[in-house]
Amino acid sequence: MKIAFAYPTNRNSLLKNIKNNKEPDNALYGYNYIKEKGKYLCEVNPIAEKILNLVFHPLSTLFMKQIDIDFKLARALLMVPGLRKADVIVSSIDGMSLAICLLKRLNLVKAPLIYSVGLFYIQGRMVEKLKKGENSPFLSFYKWLLGTADCVLYHAEIEKEKLQKLGVYNPALCAFIPIGSDKNYFKVKSSSHPKNNLVVSVGKDRARDYQTLVQAAAKLPDVKFTVACRRLNVPDMSIPKNVSFIYEVPYGKIRELYREATLVVIPIREMKRSSGQMTLTDTMQAGVALIISNVTGIAHYNMRDKQNAILVKPGDPEELKDAISNLVKDKLLRNTLSTNIKKAGTSYSTKNYAIKLTSAIGQTVQNPKLCAISKTDLKYLRNIRNKNNQFFLNSTQITNKQQRDWYESYLQKEKSGKEYMFILQDVSTNYGTGAIYNINQKNKTAEIGRFIVDEEFRGKGYGDILLKQIIELAFKKLALKKVYLEVLFDNKQAIGLYNRHKFATVEKFKKSGKQILKMELLNSASFK
Questions:
Q1: Is 183 a domain residue?
Q2: Which one-letter DSSP state was computed for residue 203?
Q3: How do strand 445-453 and strand 430-440 relate by DSSP bridges?
Q4: Where a domain ends, among 301, 321, 348?
Q5: 43 and 15 in one domain?
Q6: What is the dihedral of CA 332, 337, 340, 344, to 10 degrees?
Q7: Do 410 and 488 have their domain in common?
Q8: pLDDT digits 0-9 by tens, 303-353
Q9: pLDDT in tens, 467-521
Q10: Is the dihedral of CA 392, 393, 397, 402 positive or negative?
């Protein structure tokens, strides 16, 4: 299988540096661990890219004003020859991925697209409209673009919430993969022991709150602080003598700082978006005691206060000062945090990222597969339901209006994460339908059903494929602990299917004069 990897900048020089241990492999997002021999990088001529960037600068400016994310159409167009050779495309970072989405809409590229490492939007005019519940031409255009991705990978729960607000989240389309770091590159040598009270802070995204860090440092004159960032990150304020800012330093220097550090501080403003993740996972791999702002963007990393990190309130210099002062003095606690954060880091490596990405690639190219329904599917859904009405508790024929009304109600349930309807299909054929509904996030349970396999495909294993994919989606993507279903007692073929997939009968009852079996399946992984 040919897998094209598209990045916002060329990565060949990075590959060389990784082989020479000069840089970590973080920015490859798993590429070097993908075992498929047909993988390749889509690189472009940098001079041609610069020239085309001038042509498309107004378009990129539009995206920046609307969502605070650029739009790399010049780079995407130069990639077209490479992208056309691919069986599947993995694109990293929004500006790159959105541009390839446009190429797909224009039929310049036809391979399935995996949209990864996405923030989706940060701030801007479209975001303000979205907050107010208002539509806009750009919002419609943006959703039209995003809708052509065959798989969307998000890296924090807050990003999933963005997809839900946009009305594009569906577990058949989206998957969660947390960001990871290079465990080999950041491995601290056993001889590395910090000799001085050195607090290190690293990071250059706009969410960094170095003003709060500087305010805290000013009250700790005996502690040395080194901050590696961009000049734009430096707060407009008086910098105390015990704080040093260094700019645009190579990763080799960052690694040295981690090895010399008494502890690491990651101060983050609460911006309701992913932030600080890569620095956090770098610190995990380095195994350094950590103080970090307790913000939404790192919630999925399971940081536990005083167990594997010290969590502090964002924007509170006094609390941060006390946390730093106490941790500098408490060697035993530092050693505990260091040991535990290193253990936590085993789950957040680039190798683990690649394993999950490989799974996402497999699910994206598999045929047939579950696909989210759209308005264009309503006729098919109504016809297949009416042809098989004898298998439903309510066996009345569904009208066009009833189907449309159901769909409007369904969209609200889908957006709130309570129900998902699917069609099992490949490029040219619909094989059947299935659904997950009555989703209870608190109890981690849901009902599954509305299983129908088109008559011409029965007896060919499509029922097993449909049910298996529904179960995998429920347990792996929605992290449910139990699914259950109801089936008519005389539907022996369906009951046989459920029995083959280890469902157990838990209840027999009458409803609307018909005998019903309730069956359930437990997620064994959730009870280990």
A1: no
A2: -
A3: antiparallel
A4: 348
A5: yes
A6: -170
A7: yes
A8: 999 999 999 999 999 999 999 999 999 999 999 999 999 999 999 999 999
A9: 999 999 999 999 999 999 999 999 999 999 999 999 999 999 998 888 999 999 9
A10: negative
The answer to the question of residue 434 being in a domain is yes
- Where in the sequence is the domain holding 512, given as residue range(s)? 367-527
Taking only the tens place, the pLDDT of each residue in 375-404 is 999 999 999 999 998 888 888 899 999 999
Q: Does residue 185 fall inside a structural domain?
A: no
Q: Do 245 and 385 lie in a common domain?
A: no
Under a CB-based contact definition with an 8 Å cutoff, are residues 384 and 216 in contact? no
Q: How many angstroms separate the CA atoms of 503 and 519, rounded?
A: 6
Tokens of residue 39, six digits: 């993988």
Residue 424, amino acid = L
pTM of the predicted structure, to 2 decimals: 0.91
Looking at the fold, whether 7 and 153 belong to one and the same domain comes out as yes
404/331 same-domain check: no
Same domain, 326 and 424: no
* Concatenated DSSP letters of 136-201: -HHHHHHHHHHTT-SEEEE-SHHHHHHHHHHT---TTTEEE----B-TTTTPPPTT----S-EEEE
Per-residue b or e along 321-359, where b marks 16 or more CB atoms closer than 10 Å to that residue's CB: bbbbeebbeeeeebeebbebbbebbeebbbebbbbbbbe
Say if residue 299 is in the same domain as residue 245: yes
Cβ-Cβ contacts under 8 Å for 214 (sequence gap 6 or more): 235, 237, 239, 240, 243
The pLDDT of 160-176, averaged and rounded, is 93
pLDDT for the residue numbered 137: 96
The model's pLDDT over 183-212, given as tens digits with 9 standing for 90+, comes to: 999 986 554 555 578 999 999 988 999 999
On whether residue 232 sits in a domain, the answer given is yes
Distance CA 242, CA 144 (A): 51
CATH number where 492 lies: 3.40.630.30
